[in-house]
Structure formats: C-alpha cells, structure tokens
Design goal:
Helix content: 25-40%
Strand content: 15-25%
Shape: globular
Distance between the termini: 29 Å
Strand order of the largest sheet: 16-15-14-17-18-19
Number of strands: 19
Radius of gyration: 23 Å
Oligomer: single chain
Structural class: alpha/beta
Largest sheet: 6 strands, parallel
Bound molecules: adenosine-5'-diphosphate
C-alpha cells in the first residue's frame, strides 16, 4: 500500500485510520501487506531500523537519495526518509497554502514505493490511496511498462476523497519524469493541467472508493468534481467497499483515552465520561442535565460546518449544549469561537488536533453531529454508534450507508433548517430515557469491523492476481 497517511504515524483524517487498520485485517486473512509512507518530521525514528540506504530516485534533472526505515509494526511499514522533502511537521502545507513542491514530494513517494517493491518487498498488487499515490500506476504503465520485475503486477487505486486531486501545471511534467505521452484526456490531463488523482483513475487496473453510495454519487455531474466522466467510463472496475472500524482502538470497553470504560450492558461509565467532558471543556456542571452534542471534524465546507454555525443559536434554544473539536478554515474557527463567547454556558470549542479528546468526545457526548455536504465514508459516525452516541447525519455517501432511523437521525437537505429539525427530533427522542437507551444499544450492537471489508479487498486482489496469472499463461 502506498499512502501519505497511516495511523499511528501520520494522520490528518480517515485515510490514516484506514491505512493503519486495513493491513492487519488483511494479514489475518493470509495476505502479506507492506505500507510505504513518507517519514515526516513528526515521525520519530527511535523504534525503527534502516533497511535500505541510498535508494536513488532519478526524476528529470534531480536525484533524490533516500533512506528507507522500517517500523516495529507487525507488518512492514516502510518510511521514506528524505528530510529536504518530507522532514516537515505538517503533512501537506502551512496555514492555508499547500507546499509548493508537493508534486515532487509525492512523485518521489511513488518512485520510492516502486523501488521498495524491487528491493525489499516483492509485490503482486500495488494498492494506492488517493492522489498522493496516483503516480504509481502512471509510472508502472509507462516508465516501467517493460521492466521484468513488474510484469504481471496489478494496481488498485482507492478514492478516499475525490475533492482533493493533486492538480499541477503541465510544466512540471519533466521535473517528475512523466512521459509526455500520458498528457491526454484519457490519461492524466485535466483541463490543460495534470492531475495525480486522474493518473490513479486512468492507469489502475481496479478502482475502489470507501462506500457503495459514494461510488454511485461520484459518477454524477453534481458530485463528480469534474471527474465523473472518467469514473463513468471506468464504472465496470469501480467498486464501493465500506471502510471498517478498528474496534481495538475505538470501543468504550477498552479505550484508554476515556476516564471510565463502559459497555452496552453497563452504561454507567458513560455518565462519568459526560461529566468529565463537560469539565474538560469548561462548561458549567449543570450542563450534565442537558443533551450534549459532540463534533470532531475538519472545519471545512465539505463537513457542513457553516450549517452548524448557522443553526447553533437554534440548537441552544432547543435546550442542547455543543462541544466541538477541529481545525481548518480560519473563518469557521473564528465563527465557532464567537459562538463560544456568545453562549459560554452552552457551547465550547477547541481548535486543534487532539486524538485523546476526540475519543473523550465520542464517549462523553449524548449525540454526534455530522452534517456533511458529501462524505465518502466517514468514520466518526461509526465510532459514535459504538460509543452509544447516536449520530445526527446528512444522508450522503457513507453516512447514508451506515446510519439507520433506529440507530441515528438523518436529514436530506443541506440546510441549517433541516439540520435543526433533525437535532430537534434527536432532543425529543433523548427526553424518553428508556427509548434512548434502546437506541444507544442498537447502535452499539452494530458491527462495522474490518472483517467483511477486508475480505472484499482480499478477493479483489486475488481476482487481479489471477488475471495476471492467466495472462502470463497465454
Ligand atoms: P475525513 O477523513 O474526511 O476528515 P473521517 O470521518 O473519515 O473524515 O475521519 C476523520 C478522522 O480524523 C477520525 O478518526 C476523527 O476522529 C479524526 N479527527 C478529525 N479531526 C480531528 C481533530 N481535530 N482532532 C483529533 N482527531 C480528529
């Protein structure tokens, strides 16, 4: 697997959770999996060992002299070490601007993965995640098309979020050693520029995305982010496979980040979690008697943060409190801080990235809010179910696939009014405590573990490998 994120090493969102937890699930099914990841400045090399020195990547005018480290994980996780490109703390950029050399950084990652497959980990299937890994299939089907090491290799490309596409000017093609013949509308050209996402879509043997509904949605003009035509053309090889949850990490029975553990049979610990959360956020102790709505999110337009901001006064008027954790667009951060100032007894906001606090919000809240405009899969709503925190979601993508009327609350329209109606419904349901507990328990009983989804990936790999084998026999 080639990815720009993998928990616990580097995370900004759900991609990290998936690449962190899918490989062990695949291993249980008998597949051998390695992960290739940049060694960012935030990753400590203390528990790693250097397994390859001077892996040289020649890209256009430059040579990149890489060292490869392997972590102590049960499956090989290879960290691509090259401080001038990756030795920065933030993954993709500073403040609101991407790093200007991201095209180089993720071209080097792709070539490093191909080098690792040559020297360290004999590979049948390259499974590439999102645009940051999109050049792997492009290089394999051009630069390395006749390289005997990779004959019969197959590629899978998974779309975790079609909104981030890795678009760069055509003029960078020589710098990342891309064959000019790839610059076609069927290839990686995107309106006169190049798109690393489109490279992944065009040159991979199979495509997947992270929920069945999102797989359908992205083939429509409204939700295809300019790539719906390509996706429709490749619909025969495109599948939606729902992400799984790592319940060893996200379960109230075993969670080490929360002040009291609990289960569906004994929910008493959840009240302690709620009390602690209210204290941690500096809300008055009396808030414990009100329904508490949690939010953990990137503060981005995708996540419908503006709808929450617009609806917040109405949510407060309806009797609920809100605790929110996230980072992202400055304008949303400021607006949420203002709401905290306006309603200091009812709304509390933490701007930042804090994994422990994310767990405590899942455990200590009564309900969880995800009014996304689009949501490829979404993980927090599945975590919420397990923590007995019924989610209030917009019916889109993976949210629509995982939340039902009897486990959560769904609304269709992307508007503050619709959100508020759904919150009102949840608050009314909450006032019936025995009915609410039943709802909690129904959600807690749902199983979104990796078992089924990992099996779907494994079958896909085997089918592709079989095709390669059959091809070799012809
Ligand atoms: P996306 O990948 O689009 O951001 P997902 O719901 O798929 O959304 O995954 C988000 C993941 O990132 C979850 O594990 C969530 O808990 C975590 N997360 C998001 N923002 C924060 C934050 N500010 N602090 C800690 N964890 C966060």
């Amino acid at each position: 697997m080639v990815s720009s994120e993998a928990a616990p090493y580097a995370k900004t969102g759900g991609l990290a959770d998936v690449v962190g937890s899918l490989p062990p699930a695949l291993q249980e099914l008998g597949d051998e999996v390695a992960v290739v990841l940049p060694r960012y400045g935030s990753i400590d090399l203390a528990d790693t060992r250097c397994v390859w020195e001077h892996l040289r990547v020649y890209l256009g005018p430059d040579v990149y002299d890489l060292n490869i480290y392997q972590t102590a994980a049960n499956h090989p996780v290879y960290l691509v070490d090259y401080p001038p490109l990756f030795g920065r703390k933030a993954l993709y950029g500073k403040a609101d601007a991407d790093y200007p050399d991201n095209h180089i950084r993720f071209a080097v990652l792709a070539r490093a993965a191909i080098g690792i497959a040559r020297h360290l980990f004999a590979t049948d299937i390259f499974h590439c995640h999102d645009w940051q890994a999109g050049l792997v299939p492009a290089y394999l089907s051009s630069t390395f098309a006749t390289d005997p090491t990779f004959l019969g290799c197959r590629t899978v490309f998974t779309i975790h979020n079609l909104a981030f596409q890795g678009i760069f000017p055509k003029s960078v093609m020589p710098d990342v050693a891309l064959d000019p013949r790839l610059f076609t509308p069927d290839g990686l050209e995107f309106w006169g520029k190049i798109s690393y996402m489109k490279a992944g879509l065009a040159y991979s043997d199979a495509l997947t995305t992270v929920s069945p509904t999102y797989a359908r949605e992205i083939q429509s003009h409204e939700m295809g982010a300019g790539l719906d035509g390509v996706l429709r053309a490749r619909s025969k090889v495109l599948n939606g496979i729902l992400n799984g949850v790592d319940y060893a990490e996200w379960s109230p029975e075993v969670d080490s980040h929360i002040p009291a553990r609990y289960s569906a049979n004994d929910l008493s610990g959840k009240t302690i979690c709620k009390r602690n959360l209210i204290e941690e956020f500096g809300l008055p102790a009396g808030a414990v008697d009100r329904p508490l709505i949690g939010l953990v999110s990137r503060f981005a337009v995708q996540k419908g943060i503006d709808l929450i901001i617009e609806a917040a006064p109405g949510v407060v008027a309806g009797g609920a409190c809100i605790v929110a954790l996230g980072t992202g667009d400055r304008e949303y951060e400021d607006a949420l801080r203002r709401l905290q100032q306006d309603y200091p007894d009812r709304i509390a906001v933490r701007v930042g990235f804090d994994n422990g606090l994310a767990h405590r919000i899942e455990a200590g809240s009564d309900m969880f809010l995800m009014p996304s405009r689009f949501e490829p899969c979404g993980l927090n709503q599945m975590y919420s179910l397990r923590y007995g925190t019924p989610p209030i979601v917009r019916a889109t993508g993976g949210l629509d696939d995982t939340i039902e009327k009897d486990t959560g609350f769904k609304f269709a329209e992307s508007s503050a009014e619709a959100l508020l109606r759904s919150v009102g419904e949840a608050v009314r349901a909450y006032s019936n405590s025995s009915g609410w507990r039943e709802r909690m328990r129904r959600g807690m009983a749902k199983d979104f573990s990796w078992r089924a989804s990992a099996a779907a990936y494994s079958m896909l790999y085997r089918r592709l490998a079989g095709q390669a084998y059959a091809h070799a026999m012809l």
